[in-house]
TrEMBL record:
<feature type="domain" description="Fumarylacetoacetase-like C-terminal">
    <location>
        <begin position="27"/>
        <end position="227"/>
    </location>
</feature>
<dbReference type="InterPro" id="IPR011234">
    <property type="entry name" value="Fumarylacetoacetase-like_C"/>
</dbReference>
<keyword id="KW-0479">Metal-binding</keyword>
<dbReference type="Pfam" id="PF01557">
    <property type="entry name" value="FAA_hydrolase"/>
</dbReference>
<dbReference type="GO" id="GO:0016787">
    <property type="term" value="F:hydrolase activity"/>
</dbReference>
<keyword id="KW-0378">Hydrolase</keyword>
<dbReference type="InterPro" id="IPR036663">
    <property type="entry name" value="Fumarylacetoacetase_C_sf"/>
</dbReference>
<protein>
    <submittedName>
        <fullName>Fumarylacetoacetate hydrolase family protein</fullName>
    </submittedName>
</protein>
Amino acid sequence: MPHIFSPAANPALPIRGCADTFPVRRVYCVGRNYADHAIEMGHDPDKEPPFFFQKNPDNLVTDAEFPYPVQSSDVHHEIELVVCLSKGGSDIAVDQALGCVYGYAVGLDMTRRDLQGEAKKMGRPWEIGKAFEKSAPVSAVVPASEIGHPAAGAIWLKVNGETRQNGDLNQMIWKVAESISYLSGLFTLAPGDVIMTGTPAGVGAVKRGDRLEGHIDGIGDLDVTVV
């Protein structure tokens, strides 16, 4: 049946070396998935099972500029490994989970920390701090068929040439396969789903004019300016 208005275009990410794109269905984010980051946020990583929140599919952008959002005066950077699924299902076994992965990308989970903090204090959801417009700059997707499934390697972020975050993928509390398996017990995963896997320690505020340079070994780079 016809729509009452034209639907929005489906968000999609470019694929490195390919004219096709990766269509985005949902975006799941793993919270506090690096021990040092959990500690800097005031939590004990040894006592917490994984937990997840969501961004909107159209929050993912490949723009070179990140517009500083309204209603916030404390916006933080969080560099993350992004996992893109081409298969899904429910209750996926850990040893089968990586078979669902199409590829990987470098991403930023930009966060209105002040609004997130207010939501936490009031016991409310985090979307106001996490799921705002253009809150997830992402690089092109690199197919796993080309690079395999990186379990270790440097992940870092520089702000104006100064290193702010510097970790290794092997420091993730819940590895990629474990996160996919656990998440599939809560939701039915499907092709097009994206998982942002958490950030290492060193998150901090950005301001207009800052240049953010992110990198993950074997996957690529991300270069974004705050405007």
